[in-house]
Amino acid sequence: MGYYVIGGIGFLLFVFYDWNQAGRNFTLLKPLFGIGCLLIIAATVGLWVSGFLGRFELPIVAQAAFWTLAAISGFLLMYTLFFAVPFKQAYIEGSRQEIMTEGIYALCRHPGVWFLLFLYVFSGLAGGRVSILMAGVLFSLMNLFYVFLQDRIFFPKIFSGYPAYKQKTGFLIPTQNSIKQCIRYYQKRSQD
Prior knowledge:
By secondary structure, the protein is mostly helical. It is built from nine helices and no strands. It has helices at 2-22, 32-50, 60-83, 87-93, 104-107, 112-127, 130-158, 162-168, 176-191. Helix 1 (2-22) runs parallel beside helix 7 and helix 6 runs antiparallel to helix 7 (130-158). The radius of gyration is 18 Å and the shape is globular. The model has no long low-confidence stretch (mean pLDDT 91).
């Protein structure tokens, strides 16, 4: 149970990080996002190692398929958080950033929510870990609360143009049009 609390503290640090970015942007508080990530990773590793809540085993073909989907989800989560946005501007300088509305962020305003959920669900199924499946549910609920705060309170203060982005891009659910916009962006980038 303690690992879930550690993960929850990680999400709480994310909230304080965004609160800081939306306000005074104190240098001392800038590491909170990184510390939050480390806490969530530590909690996840602890849940894997402990085998808390029991284990199960799926056929090897299903395990391979789920590991593949987990790897894709993990890659997309890392890309969304750290490579689709200017890293230095977003995580080191902070505050008053330029909003990213193209590529993966054309799909919906918070695509990382889906990739985090899929990472936990697929890896939990692949590894037969009930504790990881439970973390997928709990951490995704915490993440939903966090992105709700971002969307309503923090991001309108951090990003100029966020209200216009909210008008044209869905909160969590991609549309046919947003999927086409995302594909066009990456097709154009591959031709450049």
